[in-house]
Amino acid sequence: TEEMLRKSDKLSMLGQLAAGVAHEIRNPLTSIKGFLQLLESRAEEHLDYYTIMLSEIDRINTIVSEFMVLAKPQAMSFVPTNITELMKHVISLIETQAILKNVQIHYSAETGLPLVSSADNQLKQVFINLLKNAIEAMPTGGNIWITVIRDHDQLVISFRDEGCGIPEERLASLGEPFYTTKEKGTGLGLMVCFKIIENHGGKIHVTSTLGKGSKFTVLLPID
Ligand code: ADP
Ligand code: MG
After folding, report:
1. Which ligand 1 atom sits nearest the alpha carbon of residue 165?
2. How many CB atoms lie within 10 A of CB 184?
3. Which keywords are on file for this protein (predicted)?
4. Per-residue pLDDT averaged across 38-59, rounded?
5. pTM
6. Would you say residue 11 has pLDDT above 90?
7. CA of 47 to the centre of ligand 1 (A)
8. 147-196: per-residue pLDDT in tens?
9. Closest alpha carbon to 196 in 84, 90, 121
């Protein structure tokens, strides 16, 4: 209807505005960070303030990047993607972080999987966010199992961890902006994941048992 159309027009204008603002915030931030880094040797007895300033700048950067992903769906270009290759790349990116946290990543994929149409950088972002959450859910370490299989006209990509789990009444809040249980969390990671997968015509399902672990399943259509 006309009313709905107007609403979505407004939303996309807001999105473009947000993307523009995010971009404009990033440039001065990069320059502040650069100069701050030059000052490190002079921070001396204020090294603790210095460290906080740098980490707060990094935090703003993370929030801004996550907003840019959300605000710019029109910049996506879809290409045929080999999920196994993409996943191996993502695992190699995150492996050092995992090892440091005593986390082992196990990957298995069906052979002969079809390509899926994806904005591959954005999909990468989704997998990284899910893996980061899994690692962060296991402060003393553990295992993550990633599996990729085909189910009819869908690719089923699941990430299972042995982490703290999510209380049942909280499952519905996942993907809401700023919902976080972490001291240094942004509560934007999952929102970005949901949004990107929605843009791919897919879905994310979550199951979880408190104290036992969680499983995030990404469903992607095969064309
Ligand atoms: P952030 O990681 O910055 O907190 P996210 O949007 O990525 O934000 O996640 C939101 C919240 O969802 C987390 O703070 C955490 O409470 C919960 N969560 C997400 N993934 C997991 C997981 N694998 N295990 C346990 N809790 C999770
Ligand atoms: Mg996160």
Report:
1. 25
2. 10
3. ATP-binding, Kinase, Nucleotide-binding, Phosphoprotein, Sporulation, Transferase, Two-component regulatory system
4. 90
5. 0.84
6. no
7. 31
8. 999 999 999 999 999 999 999 999 998 988 889 999 888 898 999 899 89
9. 121
Rounded to a whole number of angstroms, the distance between the first and last alpha carbons of the chain is 29
Type and span of the H or E element at 184: none
Nearest atom (ligand 1) to Cα of 181: 14
Tokens found for residue 108:
């298995």
Tokens 């993370």 identify what position? Answer: 62
Tokens of 170: 């909280």
Q: Please, what sign has the CA dihedral across residues 171, 172, 175, 177?
A: negative
Beta strands in 2-102 (DSSP E): 79-81
Please, is 131 exposed, middle or buried when counting C-beta atoms within 10 Å of its C-beta (0-12, 13-18, 19+)? buried
In one-letter notation, the amino acid at residue 24 is E
Q: How far is the CA of 110 from the centre of ligand 1 (A)?
A: 28
- Contact indicator for 176, 192 with CB cutoff of 8 Å: no
Amino acid letter, residue 81: T
Q: For residues 143 and 129, what is the distance between their CA atoms, to the nearest angstrom?
A: 16
Any bridge partners for residue 17, and if so which?
none
ipTM of the complex: 0.99
Q: What is the mean pLDDT of the chain?
A: 90
In whole angstroms, give the CA distance from residue 184 to residue 59. Answer: 8
For residue 148, the SS3 value is: strand
